[in-house]
Design brief:
This protein is mostly helical and 286 residues long. Among the domains are: 85 residues, Endonuclease Iii, domain 2, CATH 1.10.1670; 75 residues, Hypothetical protein, domain 2 (Endonuclease III, domain 1), CATH 1.10.340. It is elongated and about 60 Å long. About 20% of the residues have low confidence.
Length: 286
């Protein structure tokens, strides 16, 4: 034995004999066991197994997240959960909906709904807005954020509607896109909600997040996400689907801690950031 080194002595209590066994590590992709006991949350069992088989490690089982039968199942469950939802922005006309949608960018519908009643009381018509300057509108919309740009867009849209469209909000996609401050998201909201025209899918922050979680798209760009969804969602349901996903994102599939144990889509969702799961997790579903 090297000089100066003393061998480790056993403890007098004998505790050294009871070696602790480390908990086995969970394999990547392994299922998370449901919680039990008092802390367990209720879960609605829609079926005993996922509708579409999950891929194995080598991805050779033919799992197709956009298979027609899976899309149909998603739509059926959304219809059961949100049968009659519509746009949460309060409005009485196409013009009011257009203004509210412009103001909702980087803001919440709740905040916009607090601002617009007084705004429309002061300026009841599109002609009233067209007679204003952006600076006159700014104090009324300040709390929605980015109020300078939004004021400029609202006044600019009003002026163009009065000068080019006879004071009526146009009901064609290309004409709506010609208005200041109007991109496809805003145009889709107005066309789908007010004019009942399914010209596209509204891709807001909720639709962006949830469509990726459900593996309906792998894209990050809203325009590409919309094109992907338009390929797999029946056209007659584009507007309703958008509203349902938006409401789902507010109530259950929230950004930071989704309420997976309460979600009717849980057993056909393989999202990587699920908080509770009965199915295999797909690392790219996020």
């Amino acid at each position: 034995m090297p000089r100066g080194i003393t061998p480790r002595q056993p403890a007098r209590t004998g505790r050294h004999e009871g070696i602790r066994k480390a908990a086995p590590r969970q394999r990547p992709g392994a299922l998370r066991a449901p919680r039990t006991g008092k802390s367990a949350r209720p879960h609605t069992d829609y079926s005993a197994a996922p509708l579409v088989p999950a891929a194995n490690k080598r991805g050779k089982t033919g799992y197709n997240p956009t298979a027609p039968e899976r899309i149909q199942e998603i739509l059926q469950r959304l219809n059961a959960l949100y049968p009659d939802v519509t746009c949460a922005l309060h409005h009485q006309s196409a013009w009011e909906l257009l203004v509210a949608t412009i103001l909702s960018a980087q803001s919440t519908d709740v905040r916009v709904n607090m601002v617009t009643p007084e705004l429309f009381r002061k300026y009841p018509t599109v002609q009233d807005f067209a007679a204003l300057t952006p600076e006159q509108v700014q104090p009324d919309v300040r709390s929605t954020g980015f109020f300078r740009n939004k004021s400029k867009s609202v006044v600019g849209a009003a002026k163009k509607i009065v000068s080019d469209f006879g004071g009526q909000v146009p009901d064609q996609m290309n004409e709506l896109l010609s208005l200041p401050g109007v991109a496809r998201k805003t145009a889709n909201v107005v066309l789908g909600t007010w004019f009942k025209k399914n010209e596209g899918v509204v891709v807001d922050t909720h639709v962006h997040r949830i469509s990726r979680r459900l593996e309906l798209t792998r894209n990050e760009d809203p325009k590409k996400i919309e094109q992907d969804l338009m390929q797999i969602i029946p056209r007659e349901t584009w507007t309703l689907f958008s509203h349902q996903i938006i409401w789902h994102g507010r109530k259950l599939c929230i950004a930071r801690r989704p309420k997976c144990a309460e979600c009717p889509l849980e057993n056909i969702c393989h999202a990587a950031d699920k908080t509770w799961s009965t199915v295999e997790i797909h690392k790219n579903a996020k």
